[in-house]
Design goal:
Elements (H helix, E strand, L loop, with lengths): L15 E2 L11 E9 L2 E9 L4 E8 L9 H15 L5 E6 L12 H13 L1 H5 L2 E10 L1 H9 L7 E5 L6 H9 L7 H10 L7 H5 L13 E6 L4 H15 L7 E6 L6 H4 L1 H12 L2
Parallel strand pairs: 1-2, 4-5, 4-6, 6-7, 7-8, 8-9
Antiparallel strand pairs: 2-3, 3-5
């Protein structure tokens, strides 16, 4: 559950645009837009190429905990994925989903609203034609895109170092003083009690509880030098995903010598990322 990609970004164009305004046709731009779908509003960073017929990559950032950091995280995530993408004709939409004062997973409706806006409203509101929609997420963003893949079909999903995989295990380590306390576990404990007396709610919010049914092909990328917490639960998660009988294609790319940001640092990760998108 770590966290923000350490990629420099210049926060330009931070003024939030009304979702009713259309940008000029055949124009490249990067803007922040407050979108709304079925009464749920969330800010997104839109990076549009010059062409108006586009495939779209919808992106979800890693954990930053406080909402005054989520727009920066959305920019960082957009910048990280754009840097490794070998196409210049895709539109990127990076979602500044909230985290503060929400239990793990309770921000999913905001993430879902952004996806459904892209699928159902973005073309009309932006004056473009959308052909394909892909999802990409890093860390908690990987958790989100994996869960969204159990809910809605897209053209493909990429999840880098998705987590938290096992909140029971992680929060038990915090409760016994083996690792530093996190806000996520403190909030769960305040709501449900600790993992010893009431482990089930922790498990129900863990990504290991969402291993089927995947509605779209998905590529999981995991660096094998990631944190011990992530790697402890990774084999069990992988086994559960592979055991799914009602899932679309699942691919696992495990990268030796790289850590939590392996997709963005490893040439192998970047090659497979682009190959996955190109094949669909």
């Amino acid at each position: 559950m770590r966290h923000l990609l350490l990629i420099p970004v210049f926060l330009v164009g931070l003024a939030v645009h009304s979702c009713k305004k259309k940008e000029p046709a055949d124009t490249a731009y990067q803007i922040v837009r407050k979108i709304n779908y079925n009464g749920v509003s969330v800010d997104v960073v839109i990076d549009k190429p010059k062409n108006d017929v586009v495939d779209v990559l919808v992106l979800y950032h890693g954990t930053v905990t406080f909402d005054n950091k989520i727009l920066e995280a959305a920019y960082n995530t957009l910048d990280g994925f754009k840097r490794i993408l070998n196409r210049t004709d895709m539109m990127l939409v990076s979602v500044a989903y909230p985290e503060e004062n929400l239990l793990m997973g309770d921000n999913l409706p905001f993430a879902e609203a952004a996806l459904l806006w892209v699928k159902n409203k973005a073309a009309q509101e932006l004056g473009i034609t959308i052909r394909k929609v892909f999802l990409g997420g890093h860390s908690q963003g990987g958790y989100i895109v994996t869960r969204l893949n159990t809910m809605h079909a897209t053209n493909g999903v990429i999840a880098n170092a998705p987590g938290p995989l096992n909140l029971v295990y992680r929060c038990q380590l915090e409760e016994t003083g083996q690792i530093t306390n996190s806000i996520a576990c403190r909030q769960l404990a305040a709501t449900y009690g600790n993992t010893t007396t009431n482990p089930n709610p922790y498990y129900l919010r863990s990504l290991s509880n969402f291993t089927s049914p995947f509605k779209s092909d998905i590529l999981f990328v995991q660096g094998l030098e990631d944190s011990p917490i992530q790697l402890y639960s990774w084999p069990t998660f992988k086994q559960a995903v592979n055991a799914c009988t009602d899932c679309r294609e699942r691919q696992f790319l495990e990268i030796p010598g790289y850590g939590h940001n392996s997709l963005f640092q490893s040439p192998i990760g970047q090659t497979e990322f682009n190959r996955f998108i190109q094949a669909r």
